[in-house]
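Comment thread on ticket #2218

A.B. wrote:
> Attaching the input chain for the structure job we discussed in standup.
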Amino acid sequence: MNRVMAAGLLLLLAACNPVFNWREVRPDNTALSLLLPCKPDKAQRSVPLGGRPTELAMLGCDAGDATFAVAVATLDDAAQAAAVLAGWQTATLANLKAAGGGQTSPLKLAGADALPPAVLVRASGQRADGRAVQSQAVYFSQGRQVFQAVIYASQIDPEVAETFFASLKLDAGSPR
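C.D. wrote:
> Ran it. Output below, let me know if you need it in another format.
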């Protein structure tokens, strides 16, 4: 009888454990807040952005067969933002081996700089191991900071993507 009750309790607990446990996060030294569906890992590395090595800070996690990440870099000059974001998009699509180069659409994001405008890029491509992957990434800037918020999955759930991207919030007037 105890085994049956224990098994029933385990099933109940498993049913209560959501795949997406959304939580608000704030990348360090930014005016950005967003929701991630799991506890994020932090990483930092130097990457070539705008033709020069730049420190890129990232938060990311995996949930529901998808990877969610946000990355931020602080540039020497805000005037570099358009070129850096365009290069970042190109590099991401190239790494994905994206068929057709992806589809870009404008995105309204309160607190983001108007120029360059925030954009959402949807693409299908390949993971490093050759498996098919879909990507949705938002690129935007605020002051000297440039951002990428991205989802990678074999199939992106539209409701999950809406929750993730709609959660992006920048404190207006607080560029770093």
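A.B. wrote:
> Thanks. Noting for the ticket: The chain has three helices and ten strands.
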